Amino acid sequence: MSPSIRVTVWGEFRHERTNPLVAALYPEGMHETIAASLREHPDLSVRTAWLDQPEHGLSDAVLSETDVLIWWGHMAHSEVGDAVVAKVKARVLEGMGLIALHSAHYSKIFKALMGTTCSLKWREANDKERLWNVNPSHPITRGLGEYFEIPSEEMYGEPFGIPEPDQLIFISWFSGGEVFRSGAIWQRGHGRVFYFRPGHETYPTYHHPEVRRVIANAVRWAHSGVRLTDICPNVKPLESLPADSSAATRETTGYR
Question: Which of 120, 181, 170, 113 is nearest to 141 (CA)?
Fold first, then answer.
């Protein structure tokens, strides 16, 4: 059986080429590490794209062939072209799923879809992160227990400047004392959006089995199976309508 869900994993691919610590953890890039974990699932067809490719690797053809887009960005949010952001947003509204990972909370595409600041508190130290599964019946948490832990991660803390989620999936606690809404979902147009917090580049987070499970589960959940283009048509009535006495007025004034 051919794969049914087409996934594009997008990353900046900058830290891996400039920071030896990140390169050691992700020698082919974080995007390729995430993609490799997804390629273990036969129902997923996975490609990658990154910032320095033409059109950031997100041409019309690639987006047309993408059911779910995974986005990781951090040091170069401002370098993502507005035209590409507009195309990605249009595809989400048509039905493409979007999974925003870690510092993608501040990406242009996530902020465009949320319509808010998406700001937060942060600390890069050596915090333990405990992610509490607060929605155990949701497809994204399938196969997970009550919680799972990441031994070392960057801290994100509330307040988190996002709109009220449609559903909350995870809440994180950090050993420094902070808590954070670390997994949340929204519907935007016909597309499904999932924000998932873990994934700072200097930690081996994308090798973590529960993190990989969440991302795979999220891909299947975010796959809407539809593509409904916004065409805003002018349509004829299905039934006969009575004569409109104001029609002549509209014709002479130009108002509709």
Answer: 170
**169-227: pLDDT as tens digits:** 999 999 999 999 999 999 999 999 999 999 999 999 999 999 999 999 999 999 999 99
Residue 255: count other Cβ atoms within 10 Å of its Cβ. 8
- How far is it, in rounded angstroms, from Cα 93 to Cα 85? 12
Q: Which pairing describes strands 97-101 and 68-72: parallel, antiparallel, or unpaired?
A: parallel
For domain 5-115+182-230, the CATH superfamily is Class I glutamine amidotransferase (GATase) domain (3.40.50.880)
> In this structure, how many other beta carbons lie within 10 angstroms of the beta carbon of residue 231?
5
Whether the CB-CB separation of 209 and 32 falls below 8 Å is answered with no
Nearest-angstrom CA–CA distance, 42 and 121: 38
Find, among 203, 8, 195, the residue nearest to 88 by Cα: 8
Tens of pLDDT, residue by residue over 161-182, are 999 999 999 999 999 999 999 9
What's the CA angle centered on 212, arms 218 and 130, to 5 degrees?
Answer: 95
Q: How far is CA 11 from the centre of its chain?
A: 12
